[in-house]
């Protein structure tokens, strides 16, 4: 079953159960400064859960484009290292706004997975929130999942990718206990069930999270009950596609194989042989989706906020291309391949394709001007370190400041060699530069004031910090 068909079956299944199909919203959340990017299907319904907004329906279903890079749910560091994480992915979801609750949420999910998608029940494991007896009993007594495949999870903070059965959109906003469904990819893959010491492995992969939205967390940390309990579910399209296409990794599904082949084509066009299974090709294929869709939704590469996250993703992708031998632009050439794969589902992508490619091209060409020298400096610094060593903060800062290497890019190179970066020293170098820029700015301002003699021109420190941000911005670019 192709990804497009899986998406359609999901939406139609919930439509047949009285849900209104709602289109995906933008990756840039509307009027929500608390959130960097739309990171899940519920974001566009946030005010509906809290009762601030009314819709003409109480049940909805969607396939939501989502980005998890920066902010509370940040998977940038996981891409290239796990089989299941992307920066950009599609989240299939069904929502109840004070309508059905735990029973229907659980039963519908089970019916879709085992009935419509025909997944063998014995491959599925579930977790419930530690104290949620109701959810436990529905799974055990009504659905009939054997007790040994139902796991209670509390605040499990031990493992790197630890399960945590209390879901929150961000530090504030709607939240609640959840129950999650995992698929066992079989003994060939390393890993243990959720909650076990081996859960960091990729054998048991979480496919679907059913959140019982019951609270809104305010900035003071207090949980306030929602006017009515709600349901918010999210299933990664790429993860369920991996299950249904009988492959282990998300990167082996139909949609990704074409993009990975396109990335391989670009590397080969620059005269370098590369195996289709090369990890860097996967990272590039992941990143073109995030970058293109962010531009579609109005984000432009820049030095702050959303624009800087986009810039970091573009540069990470380019660094992976560089690693494979690319010495000039390749990344933006993947836009038409992406349109071929996803333009039907996302007409806004097809429409903006030329513009998206042009923006990525100029961003890419700019980084190709400094990457070679930067990589040279990084390589020689790393050559002087032992396995497990730490790159000094001054070098990391110089790479950032003069060559436009975001810290996470430098850290990614180090991680590939089993090394780390002295981030505290990097931060100290950054602070030092800000202080100097501020002093220079103040000096300039004093001069301006004395020149014009108009003290009222001084608009306070807000403007000053804007000016400094621009100064830093110029350095960040290495221009
Ligand atoms: P994981 O524990 O694997 O990181 P999660 O618990 O952070 O996943 P949720 O916040 O529960 O994920 O999101 C709901 C669903 O969205 C997940 O069950 C999964 O199918 C999918 N999903 C989450 N993060 C990603 C990602 N980075 N890439 C692809 N799919 C994802
Ligand atoms: Mg996660
Ligand atoms: Mg999880
Ligand atoms: Mg989850």
TrEMBL record:
Subcellular localization: Cytoplasm
Reaction(s) this enzyme catalyzes, per UniProt: tRNA(Ala) + L-alanine + ATP = L-alanyl-tRNA(Ala) + AMP + diphosphate
Keyword terms: Aminoacyl-tRNA synthetase, ATP-binding, Coiled coil, Cytoplasm, Ligase, Metal-binding, Nucleotide-binding, Protein biosynthesis, RNA-binding, tRNA-binding, Zinc
Main location: cytoplasm
Domain of life where this protein originates: Bacteria
First-tier enzyme category under EC: ligase
Presence of keyword Aminoacyl-tRNA synthetase: yes
Domain Alanyl-transfer RNA synthetases family profile residue range list: 1-479
Cofactor note: Binds 1 zinc ion per subunit.
Assigned EC number: 6.1.1.7
Cofactor entry: Zn(2+)
Gene Ontology terms for molecular function: ligase activity
Family according to the record: Belongs to the class-II aminoacyl-tRNA synthetase family.
Task of the protein: Catalyzes the attachment of alanine to tRNA(Ala) in a two-step reaction: alanine is first activated by ATP to form Ala-AMP and then transferred to the acceptor end of tRNA(Ala). Also edits incorrectly charged Ser-tRNA(Ala) and Gly-tRNA(Ala) via its editing domain.
Domain notes: Consists of three domains; the N-terminal catalytic domain, the editing domain and the C-terminal C-Ala domain. The editing domain removes incorrectly charged amino acids, while the C-Ala domain, along with tRNA(Ala), serves as a bridge to cooperatively bring together the editing and aminoacylation centers thus stimulating deacylation of misacylated tRNAs.
Record-given protein name: Alanine--tRNA ligase
Species, as recorded: Limnobacter litoralis
Span within the parent record: 1 to 479 of 881
């Amino acid at each position: 079953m192709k990804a497009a068909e899986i998406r359609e079956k999901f939406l139609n299944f919930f439509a047949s159960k009285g849900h209104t199909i709602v289109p995906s919203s933008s990756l840039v959340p509307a009027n929500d400064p608390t959130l960097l990017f739309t990171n899940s299907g519920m974001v566009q319904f946030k005010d509906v859960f809290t009762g601030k907004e009314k819709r003409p329906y109480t049940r909805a279903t969607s396939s939501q484009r989502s980005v998890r890079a920066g902010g509370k749910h940040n998977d940038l560091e996981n891409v290239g290292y796990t089989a299941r994480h992307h920066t950009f992915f599609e989240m299939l979801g069904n929502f109840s706004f004070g309508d059905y609750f735990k029973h229907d949420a659980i039963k519908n999910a089970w019916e879709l997975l085992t009935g419509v998608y025909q997944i063998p029940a014995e491959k599925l494991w579930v977790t419930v929130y530690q104290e949620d007896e109701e959810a436990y009993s529905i799974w055990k007594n009504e659905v009939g999942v054997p007790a040994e495949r139902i796991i209670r999870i509390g605040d499990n903070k031990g493992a790197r990718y630890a399960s945590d059965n209390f879901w929150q959109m961000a530090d504030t906003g709607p939240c609640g206990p959840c129950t999650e469904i995992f698929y066992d990819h079989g003994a060939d893959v390393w890993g243990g069930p959720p909650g076990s010491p081996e859960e960091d492995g990729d054998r048991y992969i979480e496919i679907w999270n059913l959140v019982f939205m019951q609270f809104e967390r305010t900035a003071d940390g207090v949980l306030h009950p929602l006017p009515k309990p709600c349901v918010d579910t999210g299933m990664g399209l790429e993860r369920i596609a991996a299950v249904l296409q009988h492959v282990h990794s998300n990167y082996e599904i139909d949609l990704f194989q074409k993009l990975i082949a396109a990335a391989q084509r670009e590397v080969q066009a620059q005269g370098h042989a590369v195996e289709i299974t090369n990890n860097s090709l996967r990272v590039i294929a992941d990143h073109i989706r995030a970058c293109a869709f962010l531009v579609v939704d109005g984000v432009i590469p820049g030095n702050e906020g959303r624009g800087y996250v986009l810039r970091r993703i573009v540069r990470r992708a380019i660094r992976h291309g560089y690693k494979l031998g690319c010495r000039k632009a390749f990344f933006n050439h993947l836009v038409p391949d992406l349109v071929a794969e996803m333009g039907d589902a996302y007409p806004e992508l097809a429409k903006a394709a030329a513009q998206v490619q042009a923006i990525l091209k100029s961003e890419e060409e700019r980084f190709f001007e400094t990457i070679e020298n930067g990589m040279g400096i990084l390589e020689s610094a790393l050559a002087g370190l032992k396995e497990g060593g730490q790159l000094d903060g001054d070098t990391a800062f110089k790479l950032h400041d003069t060559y436009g290497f975001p810290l996470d890019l430098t850290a990614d190179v180090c991680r590939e060699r089993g090394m780390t970066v002295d981030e505290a020293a990097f931060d100290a170098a950054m602070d030092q530069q800000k202080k100097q820029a501020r002093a220079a700015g103040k000096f300039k301002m004093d001069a301006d004031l004395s020149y014009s003699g108009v003290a009222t021109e001084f608009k306070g420190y807000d403007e000053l910090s804007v000016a400094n941000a621009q100064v830093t911005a110029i350095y960040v670019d290495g221009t």
